[in-house]
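Board notes (copied after class):
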Amino acid sequence: MKAIKPSAYARFLNALDSLDRMSPSKKLDSVEEQLLNHIYLASVNGETLLVGDVILLEKFGSQATLHGRLKNLVSKGFIQLVDDKADGRRKSVHITAKAEKYYQQLSECLSKATRL
């Protein structure tokens, strides 16, 4: 089979693969990745997300699935849950410095892939 010239997207996927190989224990599954993307975009847009809001996002899975994925993202260090000072039953979801670094690395991969 003849090899085709890699597109910018193929170069980006190769860069992502190399990032995943550098820290395989911290690799996100597809639901965690989609959920983290949603939380990150809300953070970038200045929105405050509550845990209750996140577990109601049916497009990512059931409430039990989402609750488990939130716990995984906390244990992997990508998000933190902060208690509301006025109402202890409410927790907001915040991106950590580790998640910001992750998105910076993704941005660098994308920039490199499109420069060639």
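Comment from the instructor: Helices lie at 8-22, 30-44, 51-54, 63-75, 97-115. The first helix runs from residue 8 to 22.
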